[in-house]
Design a protein that fits this description.
The chain is α+β, with helices and mostly antiparallel strands. The protein has four domains: about 20-190, Alpha-Beta Complex (Topoisomerase II, domain 5); about 245-325, Gyrase A, domain 2 (2-Layer Sandwich), CATH 3.30.1360.40; about 370-480, Topoisomerase, domain 3 (Orthogonal Bundle), CATH 1.10.268.10; about 500-820, DNA gyrase/topoisomerase IV, subunit A, C-terminal (Neuraminidase), CATH 2.120.10.90. The chain has 17 helices and 41 strands. A four-stranded mixed sheet has the order 14-9-8-17. A hairpin with a 6-residue loop joins strand 4 (about 145-150) and strand 5. The longest helix is centred in the middle third of the chain and has 42 residues, at about 345-390. It starts with 13 loop residues before the first helix and ends in a 26-residue tail after the last strand. Mean pLDDT is about 85; it is low at about 525-530 and about 805-830.
Length: about 850
């Protein structure tokens, strides 16, 4: 097939053409646009801007020049792309919040951390920073390779000499085709220390380097949480950092608190961050914030979040870290071009390649300087010949018919090179004075000395490395500064707990397994003998069986009648109204159908020095180390082996030195040291704690501390306090002593608690009625008494449980209404 103007046509599959063309395009983007060179840390556009500004003479000691002139110079000579790309790059190199060590000194509006764009390039002005001059230092000494520009009319550097370790201190980011780079900035002082130590010890490990290089150092400061991501990135070239805003809680003169944000994570837009916080408040996803304002000025950043008087600023801060850009992830990808090939680099490789580049620059610079010195020495040698034979040379020149003849005769008669002969012909007569001849001799000696020094550098790698160290130290002294980003302890991923305020909660569980939590302040204080208020709604034939007080941040170890243990965080229990029935426990833990919850204990951690002591209603007791319960399982674990007909009724946490007090439904009690119970595994049944009478059973266990009293409550609503010292210490397994005189009026014993004078208790009835009262209102009387009336019960009503409440500050007043005037049996002591 013949086509006009084309001699031959080559058939080619379109998939092959597309593949090859795309590969060519990809490599063009990778090498010529998106990735930095490992040696100078610059992409072509950055390099071209700095080189063009150097050519325009825009040095730090010179006046500023319009940015438009710089952009035009770059476009005209080196960068065949749009002006926006060039100007945006120039702007970023001038932004102190984008680069750790800026390379361009900008005058005018160069944008802000709020996301404001820079003014148009016709309004702004720019010149090189001193750091950029260091990047270009010695570029005129043949230290780097040059290549043709886009139209082959000029030469441009393929890399800069980079006296400054730019890639390491300023980092880089870019998206190529099929790959991306995201290298964080570092502190110059630390990088120089790392480079010097690598020069001294080339085989230095990453771990040893990290003794000098702590981690990235961002221009916006803030925090890096943990060192794990840093270590991973330095060892492998990839890692993940958690960056957090620097925020402090400030107490104002009016007693209110404010959260003050002074530093934000790298590349976070301050205005957008403030909008995010405002949206959280507007959408009611966070409570407790009354005002939000930006007080930032030329002195620095200051974002103020005012907190309500009763708000918890720490909880609010945790919420903001989780839900806004106050906490961000920075994914490190140390990808750079090495000999025009993209490579993922470890920390030691980055340092090695920079040192190798600077070593090459020093060699080439020294060779250049040596060539200049040798040429000068050669000329000086010719001039010395001229001064020694001045009369003969003058006569020779006078007789020569023209300059070429004079040069030829000089070369022939005095054995001079063409360069030397030309230098003699160009020499001024003033150089022939005695003083000038002396200066010539001195210059020659200095040049010879310099030649010797330069040759010494080229002959010794040790001297070259010493020179490199000197230059690095000089750079550190000129531009080094303090670290801005602080590295703090590891911060685990936020859980729901981190945004929930810590407060005491009443945990209520019904007989059929419904559970809920309420703030302890829900229940107003009442005088002894009051009627109480409804604390939990119940279904027909159901009743509240357990009441417990714990913090929202506590674990609750839940023990069941058959000896199983389950874990639950208090904040995971749904908070409901006072009359609500709550949520079925089976929806929160994997409790089996034949199990009932019989004991719960709040724990913050699983201290190996502490123990859990469990008892059964048939009188068996067992002690197990708390650490054996440290691995939560959704299906629970066996805490104690319980035989048929028996059940676990109580569990307490002890420190190994406490006494144990047990109470039976028939009004008996026994006290013995826990040391009489040896430590056993979770699967053990335990040993006998008390010898029970027929038809009696254990109903409670406490491990009392010093200064406490023991409170006992009966089904009929009677109770009393008795001093702990009234319970003598006996041996485990005995029959015990009387703790309360059980009668038909009092009913059998419901519970035994240890209490302090400042404590409060909650009594709960079968129908769900609750009364809260001060322990100090209950008399301290002897063991053999029946106690006093604590709550007035209706017909067929019984007290089923008791909970001790730690005293808290509360504004509510004691209820002195008429309900409390009917205490017909207050203070009765039926001894």
């Amino acid at each position: 097939m013949a086509i006009e103007g084309i001699d031959r046509v080559f058939p080619r599959y379109i998939e092959d053409e597309m593949r090859d063309s795309y590969i060519d395009y990809s490599m063009s983007v990778i090498v010529g646009r998106a990735l930095p060179d490992v040696r100078d840390g610059l992409k072509p556009v950055h390099r071209r801007i700095l080189f063009a500004m150097n050519g325009l003479g825009l040095f730090p000691n010179r006046p500023y020049r319009k940015s438009a002139a710089v952009v035009g110079e770059v476009l005209a000579k080196f960068h065949p792309h749009g002006d926006t790309a060039v100007y945006d790059t120039l702007v970023r190199m001038a932004q102190g919040f984008s680069l750790r060590y800026t390379l361009i000194d900008g005058q005018g509006n160069f944008g802000s951390i709020d996301g404001d764009s820079a003014a148009a390039y016709r309004y702004t002005e720019a010149k090189l920073q001193k750091t950029a001059v260091e990047m270009l230092s010695d570029i005129d000494k043949d230290t780097v390779e040059f290549g043709p520009n886009f139209d082959d009319s000029l030469k441009e550097p393929l890399v800069l000499p980079s006296k400054l370790p730019n890639l390491l201190i300023n980092g880089s980011s870019g998206i190529a085709v099929g790959m991306a780079t995201n290298m964080p900035p570092h502190n110059l002082n630390e990088i120089v220390d790392g480079l010097i130590n690598m020069i001294d010890k080339p085989e230095i490990t990453v771990e040893e380097l990290m003794e000098h290089i702590q981690g990235p150092d961002f221009p916006t400061g803030a925090y890096i949480c943990g060192r794990g991501g840093i270590q991973e990135a330095y060892r492998t070239g990839r890692g993940k950092l958690i960056l957090r805003a620097r925020a402090n809680i400030e107490l104002k003169s009016d007693g209110k608190e404010s959260i003050i944000i002074t530093e934000i994570p790298y590349m976070v837009n301050k205005t957008k961050l403030i909008e995010q916080v405002a949206n959280q408040v507007r959408e009611k996803k966070i409570e407790g914030i009354v005002d939000l304002r930006d007080e930032s000025d030329k002195e620095g950043m200051r974002v103020v979040i005012d907190v309500k008087r009763d708000g918890n600023p720490q909880v609010i801060m945790n919420h903001l870290y989780k839900k806004t850009s106050m906490q961000e992830t920075f994914g490190i990808i140390n990808l750079a071009l090495v000999d025009q090939v993209p490579r993922i680099l470890k920390l030691n490789e980055l340092l090695e390649l920079y040192i190798a580049h600077r070593h090459t620059v020093i060699i080439r610079r020294t060779e250049y300087d040596l060539g200049v010195a040798e040429r000068r020495a050669h000329i000086l040698e010719g001039l010395k010949v001229a001064t020694a034979n001045i009369d003969a040379i003058v006569q020779l020149i006078k007789k020569a018919k023209d300059t070429p003849t004079a040069k030829e005769q000089l070369m022939k008669k005095f054995k001079l090179s063409e360069i030397q002969a030309q230098a003699i012909l160009d020499m001024r007569l003033a150089r022939l004075t005695g003083l000038e001849r002396k200066k010539l001799d001195e210059e020659y000696k200095e040049v010879l000395k310099k030649i010797s020094y330069l040759k010494g550098i080229l002959e010794s790698k040790r001297r070259r490395m010493a020179l490199l160290k000197e230059e690095l130290i000089e750079i550190k002294e000129k531009y080094g500064d303090e670290r801005r980003t602080e590295i703090i302890a590891e911060v685990e991923d936020f859980s729901l707990e981190d945004i929930i305020a810590e407060e005491e909660m009443v945990i209520a569980i019904s007989h059929t397994g419904y559970i809920k939590r309420l703030p302890t302040g829900t229940y107003r204080r009442q005088l002894r003998g009051g009627k109480g208020i409804t604390g939990m709604g119940t279904r027909e034939s159901d009743f509240v069986e357990h009441l417990f007080v714990a913090s929202t941040h506590d674990y609750i170890l839940i023990f069941t009648n058959n000896g199983q243990c389950y874990w639950l965080k208090v904040h995971r229990i749904p908070q409901a109204g006072r009359a609500s029935i709550g949520k079925a426990t089976v929806n929160l833990i994997d409790i089996k159908k034949n199990e009932r919850i019989t004991a719960m204990q709040p724990v913050r951690g699983f201290d190996p020095t502490r123990h859990i002591i469990m008892v059964t209603k048939k009188g068996h007791i067992k002690k197990t180390g708390l650490e054996e319960f440290s691995n939560p399982r959704r299906a629970g674990i066996k805490a104690m082996t319980v035989v048929e007909g028996d059940e676990l009724i109580e569990a307490v946490i002890t420190d190994g030195t406490q006494d144990i007090v047990l109470a039976t439904r028939g009004g008996m009690a026994i006290r013995f040291p826990e040391s009489q119970v040896r430590k056993m595994g979770r699967a053990a049944r335990g040993v006998r704690a008390i010898t029970l009478k027929k038809d009696d059973e254990l109903i409670s266990m406490v491990a009392p501390g010093r200064g406490t009293n023991l409170l006992v409550v009966t089904e009929g609503g009677y109770g009393k306090r008795t001093r702990l010292d009234d319970y003598r210490v006996t041996k485990r397994g005995g029959k015990g002593i009387t703790t309360l005189k059980v009668t038909g009026r009092t009913g059998r014993l419901v519970d035994l608690k240890e209490v302090l004078d400042q404590d409060e208790i909650m009594l709960i009835t079968r129908s769900g009625m609750i009364i809260r009262q001060k322990v100090s209102d209950i008399k301290i009387i002897g063991r053999a008494t029946q106690g006093v009336k604590l709550i007035r019960l209706g017909k067929d009503e019984l007290v089923v449980d008791v909970a001790r409440v730690v005293k808290e500050d509360e504004n509510s007043k004691v209820n002195n209404n008429d309900e409390n005037d009917e205490n017909d049996e207050n203070g009765e002591n039926a001894e």
